[in-house]
Each structure stands twice: as C-alpha cells, then as structure tokens.
Amino acid sequence: MAGNDPTVERLNAEIAACDREIESAQADLDHISSGRSAYQSEIQNINYRIDDLKRQIDQEYEAVRICSAAHNRYDADNHRMRAQDFKKELTRQFELKRSAIAKTRGDGGSFQAALDRKRSAIERKKRAKEQLFARFDELKREKEQKQAKWKEKRCRDCGKNFKYNTEWSKVPDLCPDCQKKAKDKWREKPCKGCGNPIRYNTDWEHIPNYCADCKAKRKK
User: Fold this and answer.
1) What is the pTM of this model?
2) Domain ranges for the chain
3) Cys-Cys crosslink for 193: which of 49, 142, 203, 214, Cβ 3.0 to 4.6 Å?
C-alpha cells in the first residue's frame, strides 16, 4: 500500500532531492576548502618572503651606515640601491598578500553559502522523513481499521468458515463455493406451451413444463 501512496512517493522524491542537494553542497565545500588551503599556504609563503626581505633591507641599511662612516660613498650607494630594490619587492609581496587574503574572504562567502545550502537540505530532509514516518503510521492504522471490518462466519451448507465485511449491506449465509453451487442449480427450459423460458432449480422435486401464464390458461 505504501508503495502506491502518492504522499509516500512525494516524500521519497523530496528526500532523494535533498540527498542530491547535500551531495552537491558538500562537493562545493570540499572544492572551496581546497582552494582556501592553497591560498592560506600561499599567504604563509608570502609571509616568509616578507620577513626575509625585511631582514635583507635592515642588513643593507646597516651596510650603508658602515660604509658612510668609512667614507666609502660608492659602496654605500650600492647598498642603498639594493635596499630600494628590496623595498620594491617588499611592496609587491604585500600586494600579493592582500590579493590572496581578499580571495580567501571571497571564498569565505561562497563557503558560507554552500554550508547554508547543506544545512537547509539536511533540515528539509529531516522534516520529510518525519512526515514519511508519520504517513507510514497513518497507513498502518488505516490497514488495521480495514482488516478489523473483516469477520468470519460458518457456512450454512458445508460448515466451513468464510470471511465477510461488516460494511456489506447483506451478509451471505453461504461461503463463495456454496454460493456458486447454489447459483449453478438454477437452469432454464422452454415452456411447452408458449416457448418462453422457465427458471427452475435442480433441487426441485417437480420441475414445471409450463410457465405461470400457460398454467393459468390450462386451468381454465
């Protein structure tokens, strides 16, 4: 019964749709998580390069100070130029870091959207399963109520028990087999007077040869 119930079919289809939505959302979460891990690794590498550049810049300016104190202008200018190159590279690394951070934040919105989709599908699936189980209980009660309307009684002729429904307007006294046997005992034969069919029962001791009208005419 449950397999043919429209409500059960609808709820099963809804649960299947939720499962597909959960699977799709989880795939998006996995993809985004993988991308975020890559960006976080990139940011970590950039931080290492930034720290290294800062150390190199400090070293170059220290060399400038030493060379200037020794009145070695040529080497001081070279160290100053190298420090400027390192500072340009430092600026570029900061820009790369800001770009990577922006991407992780953008993915954060996508991650939250996918997470919300998954949570919503899980909640819808939960409600659908609750409704499905409630429908199963309802169908079980309906089946039990229908079964309760079927009773048994003993056949008047053969004594076997047969089932009948309490909602039937007329409860038979014979089982189906005996009903068929009783029905098969009724036959027809043509009236010897007019030819019209006469219904008779094979259990009758005297089977008539004339219909009621012909009998009446013959009596006159």
Assistant:
1) 0.53
2) 2-148, 185-220
3) 214
